[in-house]
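User: Structure please.
Assistant: Input sequence and predicted structure:
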Amino acid sequence: MDRSLVLFAIGLIFGGGIGFVVAAGNGITFDGHDHADTATHGDANLATAHENMDHSAAHDTPMDVPSEDAPSVSLALMTDPMAGHNLQVTVENFVFQPEGASLAAVPGQGHAHVYVNGEKLSRLYGEWMHIAALPKGDVTVEVTLNSNDHRPLAVDGTPISASTTLTVE
């Protein structure tokens, strides 16, 4: 066997062993990863800002907008030929602004929240979304428009939203 190949194999064995000992000695496990890890998930300041947000106030307190400039939303839900459903969301006087999510509110921009039977399914940053599966029975899909800071947009206290109900068999 070639000497360089033998030395390579020995290096792999010792390198792997040393790496394992260092990881184990520092409490590092291989069963998941840290979502606050900025190398994987972006800027530490954004992660910290999002963790420190008062989500209950942001998500529960509507942001009233003047009725003359109020955004509007409508939706269409279609059965996908392969599986699930496709949701199309149409907005007026509103711009989806994914890069502004969790930042300060800016009039006329933000994102949407998608709910299935009153439970939040996802944020939406554009016109289309595929919903892989819906529960059986009567299902209500609702879309609300939200400011960058996640507050639901409203006119005179009434949320700007659209919904549809369908029966899933």
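The first strand starts at residue 63 and ends at 64.
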